[in-house]
């Protein structure tokens, strides 16, 4: 299942945009999919890239990635229910298609990513009146100048699949900067456990054709409270648990909550100024 059009030239961390896209599309093609993502399926068909050969096709991996995306979708949908004209900022957005899955027709969307990934997104998912693309590193806080900070409209920052590739100091600085610039806003992040981070840094997360990039930032599920220490304005820290699932995954997910060394999705709330 590889496409025959656009030929992306991404390496290392930027290439993970293709990895996540692939697994969402694999899951979305199933009749019993846990995530409805027709735009991801379309993109894979349009891109000339050896997805299956490079990343493999393991149903469990695809389902888990789709369930992670669904956690972010629920948070964004809830935010837009309270702030219909709010702004959703996707940091390290890659080829994420969330704005088509949960868009309400009124929200503003800003995708922020490195120049090579932003260029690919512009070709495949051109910006329109409510969807913008900004070529900028998430750690270059100048992207914040492109966001309306009005708490009445609302701002939610989504960092799906990003923070694990940053250094711990960069993660803390990013959270602190968002808390200062967007009072009343929110940020949703995901984290890999520390053991997973160590293996990635050592180059031990690999299969026949693909080695995952280093992931310097790891955090076990029982460490979520530490995120509040990034800035005094971080007033709420809440884990977002995956829901549903198929087959054995559906049975195991509720039990996995008791495991501390596991991936997690976390929602942060920022105090009003």
From TrEMBL:
It comes from the Bacteria. One of its GO terms (molecular function) is methyltransferase activity. InterPro entries: Ppm1/Ppm2/Tcmp (IPR007213), SAM-dependent_MTases_sf (IPR029063), TcmP-like (IPR016874). It is an enzyme of class 2 (transferase). Its EC number is 2.1.1.-. Transmembrane segments: none annotated. GO terms for biological process: methylation. It holds the Pfam family LCM. Keywords: Methyltransferase, Transferase. This is Class I SAM-dependent methyltransferase. It comes from Kitasatospora cathayae. The lineage of its organism: Bacteria, Bacillati, Actinomycetota, Actinomycetes, Kitasatosporales.
